[in-house]
Structure formats: structure tokens, C-alpha cells
Amino acid sequence: MLPAVRAGVCKAAQTCSTKVFINKSRVHPLKRLLSSCDGVTGRLADAETIFALSSGHGRCGVAVVRVSGPASGTVLSCMVGFTRSLPPPRTALLHSIRDPLSKEVLDRGLILWFPAPHSFTGEDSVEFHIHGGPAVITAVLQALGSVPGMRPAEPGEFTRRAFHAGKLGLTEVEGLGDLIHAETEAQRRQALRQMSGELGRLYQDWSHKMKRCLAHIEAFIDFSEDELIEDGILNQVDRSLCELQSAIEQHLKDERRGERLRSGVQVVIAGATNAGKSSLLNMLCQRPAAIVSPIAGTTRDVVETALDIGGFPVVLSDTAGLRESPDLVEREGVRRARERLEQADLTLVVVDCAHLPPDPHNTEAFLRHHLCDVLSTTEQTRAVFSTDRCLLVLNKTDLLPEERRQMLDAELTQASGLPPVCLISCHTNDGLKNFLTALHNSVKTLCGDPLGGAPSLTQARHRAHLQQCVAAFAQYHRYRNTDLALAAEGVRLALTCIGRITGRVGAEEILDIIFKDFCIGK
């Protein structure tokens, strides 16, 4: 799962960084050494300079150690041995990397110098591209940790400095975080689009229009009695705010496509006992993720796995068979299955072909009734036959005579009151290709095209702030003709809500929430 992957990387990076320490007995010799370096761009400043392993921890061909802060140039000079001037900016040079005190060669690798403000963080920055063995990485980090004024970076601290330097907006920061953690092609595309600033520019445009409206309202309040304000200025504000409110409400009516794509589409396998739900899960996972048994009620708990379906992230859940049972454990499993159905974005309703009526003409009515039974407690009941919220999977077709199978296929092709129907055999994999195509189409519909149309909402916090923004517009309309000061306060609240998304207004209280998900070194 994505959070587990992210936590593993962060833990590995933290494990590496905990090996770094500052040897107090070496501080004074290093200060003398650093002050004696000729050609150094400046002495160590009071501001902290941070460093971290920015590539994944473990044995690899190349590891990247990043340094950022006012002492970056000093550290580079003393670890590489430049005595006259620093290397050309943004130019990779192959050079020996040494311990600043002992002058022992630690490794031979590439160095890159990024002077402020033309760096990721906006500060002086250095990158050491070294060999990826644990001993080499540890030696370089130990050497950096022994330099006065240097300390290991906190998770996300490089990106946080980039934000404070104005290099990235808050939505771009979130896009960068999503890009780092993207596991599928569609997630990568959406994250890259957000990181490019398209979503941020949309919100900034709305913010700019709100500021103009607020300025006009305030001007009318202050100067209308002096007849310095042109007639109809408030009517222009009314039109602008109505257009803005309409645009934001339309932005909110995205059916959570961007959020689904970011976190994964919740696909739940449901149906009666022994219909082949666990077999379907194993077939899609291509491994024995769930126990398959002819004994009814084998699956008691929810079995969950993450999949990549045509580039789209899917969280697939196998659930207990839906039936009445005197067994307390099985009843709890059925309760959990119903609960998971409530949360499902897409439901795969599995039916055993042996339970279909003998007469193919009665199949449609039977399946309609069966769908209502399976989905009786979910929101999908209101649109139970929606083509993008449900798929009917008729399993065990290998047990049907060929003639009956053809008749069943022909009858279901003509049925118009059902969601897409797939005839498959989990035993022989017959019909698997058509089923995967139907599943991919449904998932793609739920997520949308990450590169098409307007940029999508990707964060629950964006949605919450935009909903508060719409509510603030309602305050403006409520007091527009009675108390213009209170109406202006509604616009000011709406502007604050947008600012909390972009990080321009009142962002401090949400920065820790956003940056805590970044790994050390980013």
C-alpha cells in the first residue's frame, strides 16, 4: 500500500540520518580549518545549513546527498578542496570528496553547486553524487555532521524552504509530494500537472478576482457619500461574485475524481457464498491472496490488496458471502462486508452461473432482483444499474453447456436494464480479457482523464476550504442590501479560504500536516 511504502522510505532515511552526529571534540579544529580556507564565499552564517540523503536508502549505484543553507559553499570548498573559487554553477564535476579534518578521501563522485537564488530551495545548495554503498553514504554524512553549523534535515525541510522562498506554492508542494509517492501512470500524470502549477494558478486567479471585488466594496463603503465612486460598481461586484461562485461550485462537482485517483478507487467484490469472489480476487492479483474452499462462508474478514489497472490505482477488497447465518463470526464478516459496500466506488457483484434460472429469458429479471439484494444498504441502490458504479460478473461459465452459454450471452447482450455483464471462468480464465476491459473502463470513468479538462481537486482539505468559500459567498448575498460591512466580511472570509489552499493566507497551521508526509532529503 502507498502509505506503507512511504513510511518505509521515511524510516530508512531516518535510520541513516540517526548515524550522523556532531563530535564536539572536533568543533574547534574544524572552525580553524574552515576559517583558513582561501576563496571561501563567506563565513558560516548564524542560519542553519541542513543536509540529508535525498535518494533511497540501501545499496545502489548512485546516492545523492543534498546540502542547503548559507554554509553550503564553505562545506563544498573544504570537502572537495577548492581553495580559490567555487566551481561553475550547475555544472557536474568529477572530484574526490574528503573528510574536512583528516583529509581522508571518502569517495570519488560528482559535485554540483547551485548558488542562491537559482536552486530548489532558493538558498546556496550543493549535491554530492556518490557511490551508493552504505559505508560510503555513512562516511559522507558523518563528515557533514561534524562541520559546525550543519545539522540533519527534518522530513520535507528542503521543500519547506522552497515554499518559504517562493519557489513553490502550497498546491505545487502537494503535487510534488504526490509525484514522489505516485505508483501508477495516471497518478504520475495528475501529480505532475499539479506540480506544474496549473491548479495553483486557477486558485490564484480566483483569489485575484475576489481581491478586486473586496477592494471595490471597501471603496464604496468609504467614498460613496463623496460621489467619488462610479455608479453601478456594486452591480459589477455582484456579477463577478456570482460568476466566481458558479465556477467554484462547478469545480466541486467533480465526483471526487482527483481524490480517487490520488488514493485509489475502492473496488469491492460482493455476492453470495461460493460464487467465486475469492477466486476472482486471486485471479486479478495473480497470487493466492485469499483462501479458496468449497465450504461456504470461508471468507470471514475483508481481504484487501492494491492493484494497477491500466495505469489507474485500485484498492480491491474481497468480502464475506452475503447470507443469513447463525454463526457469530460469519455474521460479523457479513456486517463488515455491508460496511465496505457503503464505502465502495465500484462494486463487482459475482454470481454463480449455476444459480441462474433455466430459461434464459428470465435471466434479466433474476439479476435485477439479485442486485437489489446485494446492494440493498448502499447508496448505489438509487442508481443500482449505473454503468460506472457496478459490474455484474457471471462466474463458472466453464460448467455451462456451450449451447446454453451462447443463449445466455445473446440474452444479456440485448438486456438494457442491467449494468455491464461479464461472463468469466476463474478456473479457466475464459472471458478474463473482456472483464479487464470493462473494469478498466469503469475505473477510468470514475477517475477521469488526469490531463484533460480543468485541473481536478486532489486533496480533501481543498474541498473543505472551497466549501467554506461558497458558504462565505452566501454571507455576502445575505447582507448585500442590509449591511455592506458584513457583506464585505463574507468576501474577506472567502478570500481567506482560498488563501489557505495556496498558502498565501493563514498557512502556518497546516504546513506541518503537509510536510510531515515528505521523506528526509526532500
What descriptors fit this protein?
single chain, 522 residues, alpha/beta, six-stranded mixed β-sheet, flat
Structural write-up:
Helix content is 47%, strand content 15%. It has 18 helices and 12 strands. A hairpin with a 2-residue loop joins strand 8 (303-309) and strand 9. Helix 6 (170-181) packs antiparallel against helix 7 (185-195), helix 8 packs antiparallel against helix 17 and helix 9 packs antiparallel against helix 16. Residues 1-45 and 380-385 have low confidence and may be disordered.
Low-confidence stretches: 1-45, 380-385
SS class: alpha/beta
Mean pLDDT across the residues is 84
Would you list the SSEs in sequence order as H and E? HHEEHEEEHEHHHHHHEHEEHEHEHEHHHH
**Overall body shape:** flat
Q: Helical residue percent?
A: 40-55%
Spatial extent as radius of gyration: 30 Å
Q: Give the count of helical stretches.
A: 18
Range of strand content: 5-15%
Main beta-sheet annotation: 6 strands, mixed
Distance between the termini: 21 Å
Number of strands: 12
- The largest sheet has its strands arranged as 3-4-5-2-1-6
